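So, can you check?
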Amino acid sequence: MKKFITSTLLAVMALVSFGQNHLNPVAPPFLQAGDTIAIVSLGSTPKDGIAEGAAKVLQQWGFNTIIGKNVTANHAMYAGTVEERLSDLLTALRNPKVKAILSTRGGYGSSLLLSELPLDTLRKYPKWIIGYSDITSMHSAQVCAGNMSLHANMGGALNEKGANDPVNIMLRDVLMGKYPDYTVPAHPLNHYGQADGILLGGNMSVFSLLSGSKYDFLMPHRWMRKPVILFFEDVSESMPRVMSMLYLLKLKGVINRVKGIVVGRFTDYDKPAYGYKDMPELLDEYLQGYDIPICYDFATGHDESWNYPLIEGCPVTLNVDASGTRLTFHPAE
């Protein structure tokens, strides 16, 4: 009897734990004209003037702005110490006037903040966090906390490309509640098909770094009840490194369970190399055995003119056919 009671209690505890870990992200409140966006540096130090230039663009769109105290701080390769960067982030999260948080750039170091950032804090203050590349770590934490997050261009692109840049305008529209519907040209390696799921992913090397942690949104036990569409991109990563990260996803059970894959651009790597003409050819050799829709050269990556805003944790429909790829976002039920 004692063994039966013990095993029953353990089963109940496991179910409770599973329920707490189960992903069901919701959208933070969308913005309206007059709302405030905080500009902070979560990773590396931006160039002079980027925060101020980004603020001007946001103001042109009708938003108010706050620039973090430590936005141009410098510590080693980071925009200040962990304490300084975390202080700016927490100040923005706790400020009831702030409705979204824009990182000036990626670079390195945002993942170092996570050990001092409880998921409960992100749950308590649901706000859009905007960025890509190194900011993928924040998106992963956000989704694990139950919030959707915004994989999109940052302060640098706003400053350099201005308020009327087409991709920047896409960011503005998503912030104000427009769910995107993107179409991109066909690629010869695409796998045709249609699938529905929540969209998860980002910079491949960054989300690989979080593997197995409580901030890892790609741990399969988190989304056992919810189909997932995976997207990834990277910069300056060699073909062997990318292959290793693919195998990590396989070992975790991710690749075998996703319903579709969106491959963004891989840039600044040696090609041809290792017998492959480019990264898509390497990826296709690995992925061609999977009977799911897969698209290549989707508009996400480190080319900021080809980096469409993607809502992490949002329901999407991926449709890949001979005419191209369509990725449609839907409000959560």
About this structure: The first strand starts at residue 36 and ends at 40. Residues 1-20 have pLDDT under 50 and may be disordered.
